[in-house]
């Protein structure tokens, strides 16, 4: 057993004081989600008082039933294939063992503690409330945002692209945006992200990428570019409003997905952490 | 909107290099868990190839069904009551709104980024592999461990108590330990923890506290002392072996529970992060 | 042990030939249902080939997650209360044991093999395709239908009220009818049913009773009259089209609900059986 | 629309009086089942009082999560394959559409109203309480039972084979019988059944066929003979005690499975109906 080493810089930074931003959404029955995935449901099989122990103690518990791509979540590389191949040219059939994605499953996503960059696109474009429904965030928009903010995503970082659409989460169905379309990067914006060799990209929408009005999830090129071609994870339905409002574009990013063996994604509650000024 | 502030100490510590220890267990069908909670089940409603988009793309997805107190998880303060009261004297009935614990539910657990302390009790006691089944970790054991390690949990920290029982996780049923009993703190050890005013306490067993052989979960005094009396969260079924092996007793602790509205707990994958020496 | 008795009339009728009408709907992901209940979801955890036995055998299996009031189903007397009371004046709290409705739960519904009467209301009213959205089937309509058909429901029978709305099932959302309203009996029609002392009443709509346009399930008087006041079960989302088309208004009715302990309802697939002419 | 025909023989038999025997088991959390299938779980998302309507009405509802092969259920022909083929030589892969068994799925099982024959094997063998654990019911045993009872299963009937093992259901784990073995037909008994060209065969055990002590479900030849080779459905975990006790060996059998699209089986509650003597 190696001796304990004093983790000085990190713990020192911690004692100086940190502020934590919650980038995840609450999971509640009826929250807006894609209809392609099992709805989030929750119930209490047992409430306090249903059974009381000999010493007056009682417990309540839960059952949840849900898809992994509902609410704030991360897509594993097993989630999307193209022409039958997953990332790295792996045949999607071969990735399965006993009916689960032993290869590239959600359990293979390493927990992330790394530099995070928030690209507040609407702020950079002068429309801080948010981009229009169905607006495609272009390579030029992303570059302009980097320029304005002075923060470029680097290799191994996580980049979060704010569209402002997250403001509609509380409204429910409008957030899903099937008819209206939803703003986000398109294929070229995804390539721009891939060129930066980040480990993951996140957005404040259900589908991460731009959805044209009425198009639904018919074709998702950014998913192909990121998950299949580049091995870059996608994080969806994030809450980026508070972080953007506070003006933090560079931070310690943490995401610890549930290690769901052989799954195609995991619900997650990412955090952005900054030193207190 | 305030200008972006350079989060220097934290990000500087990050660029110096960090090492991340995964303190959570994998979730897989058949993993050992308490029979009192809905079993973890997972399936892929859709596999690659079931449906192929016009551009050759295909997606796979998941459905999961589980209790929140299975695998590595955190207990919310809504989980345990005593004589009909939750923490703070709140009547358990009053905590419910529309059939969910609006008060003290899992959604009220703030994400944690704080100092963590690992108390490697068996190492301190000279039996590094682990404590015996049914062994009660006493106040004296905890103090001796603090003495030996030179790391005392402070107010607001998270304390993790290693019993070594986590080594049995891979064996399945023996880890549940109904007949054999399971090591852990008892009522007095829980009081010692409470006196330190930590925000949460974790262990490498399903029930966190000591279970006498054959006793099952009949009476759980440590849960009452911590959750009900002290408002201290409990984290269960952690994997502390690697962290203990590496000799890290003090670290940045991170736990970001899923904000499950009105639930009594949440699956979680805590992390211990240290600066690279 | 008593000797075997020859069940002559029933088996004789069987050998003469019977025709079976399926009065239930298929359960499939995405089928129209009330949003108040957990959605029906199904997946195959295991498909053929995932695991192969030593002799070349393989098996596939399922996981389903659903509410009990989705698709064709029967409401137990534990489903609806009024001013805190269930049928028979039983306090709804007292009906619970350990968090389940030990009293009046779905497990208390005796399997039904009895006379069934189909009241084809639109046919009797001269609009055989169906009643209008939001139309209230009145006491007069029911009497007129009995007159025309010459079949009156008697004590212990099951009465099925066709509105014709079932034709919309295949269309999905329109069948739910929130905005349009849905035809069915109102409070007085329910009283007419109750006066006949039937054991159950069924309809070809999700909510059984008339929904005014836009009203949703805000107030459901027929449920109160039947379940709470009269102890008469309600069967919803039936498929009555084929039976009506064939002109059978009197038949052997069979419904065998799943004995789900302590539940408030059960999915079911009722049958109407007639002798072949 | 054809005129209503008077279904005289069947309804006449009904009015003469019938007795209904429930051949299904109650579904409750913790009931004995095969560990290979998702456990039956049930909870009430809403209890009376959680929400109260403007008129004082309130409702309670359910969520259930379960495998289809738990409790009393019927196996569809999509459940078992041999060397990659389902019944009729259909390739198991070809039977799938969009990830579900469009061909031979549970939704293709026609509701059954037909003659049923109970073969009370232990009674015929002089051990009326039941067969021994792991006992193989042979072709000779089945013939002897037919001889003794004077009731032979004919083409299109449903045959129910009582082993008496159902008496252990209430004991839980012993009923599963992994270590002890479970009585039932073996391969040759299954062939005997198949030769009679019945439409389905049922038993009072979880696995229908004989399990040798400690063998588990490693190889199940009767499943192959019946489902794959003969297209005969299998009904498991039935309750045959009351029917046997009453001495009814011939009756009207009814089973109406839930039409679960693309599934491999369905929970069901079969009935045996006889005329009152």
TrEMBL record, chains A, B, C, D:
Name any one Pfam family assigned in the record: Cyclase
Q: Report the InterPro entries cross-referenced here.
A: KFase/CYL, KFase_sf
SUPFAM superfamilies from the xrefs? Putative cyclase
Enumerate the Gene3D superfamilies for this protein. Answer: Putative cyclase
Q: What is this protein's record name?
A: Kynurenine formamidase
Organism of this sequence: Nocardioides massiliensis
């Amino acid at each position: 057993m190696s001796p304990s080493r004093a983790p000085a810089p990190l713990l020192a930074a911690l004692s100086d004081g940190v502020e934590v931003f919650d980038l995840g959404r609450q999971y509640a029955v009826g929250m807006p989600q894609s209809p392609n995935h099992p709805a989030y449901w929750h119930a209490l099989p047992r409430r306090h008082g249903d059974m009381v122990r000999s010493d007056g103690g009682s417990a309540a518990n839960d059952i949840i039933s849900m898809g992994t791509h509902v609410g704030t979540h991360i897509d594993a590389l097993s989630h999307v294939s193209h022409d039958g191949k997953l990332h790295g040219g792996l045949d999607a059939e071969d990735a399965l063992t006993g009916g689960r994605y032993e290869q590239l499953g959600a359990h293979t996503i390493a927990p992330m503690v790394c530099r995070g960059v928030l690209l507040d696109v609407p702020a950079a474009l002068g429309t801080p409330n948010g981009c229009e429904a169905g607006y495609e965030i272009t390579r030029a928009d992303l570059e302009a945002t980097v320029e304005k903010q002075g923060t470029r995503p680097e290799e191994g970082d996580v980049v979060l692209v704010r569209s402002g659409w997250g403001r509609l989460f509380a409204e429910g169905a409008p957030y899903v945006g099937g008819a209206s379309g939803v703003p986000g990067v398109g294929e070229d914006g995804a390539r721009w992200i891939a060129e930066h060799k980040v480990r993951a990209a996140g957005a404040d929408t259900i589908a991460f990428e731009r959805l044209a009005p009425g198009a639904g999830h018919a074709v998702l090129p950014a998913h192909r570019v990121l998950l299949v071609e580049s091995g870059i994870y996608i994080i969806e339905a994030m809450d980026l409003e508070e972080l953007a409002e506070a003006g933090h574009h560079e931070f310690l990013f943490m995401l610890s997905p549930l290690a769901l063996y052989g799954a195609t994604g995991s619900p997650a509650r990412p955090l952005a952490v900054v030193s207190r000024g």
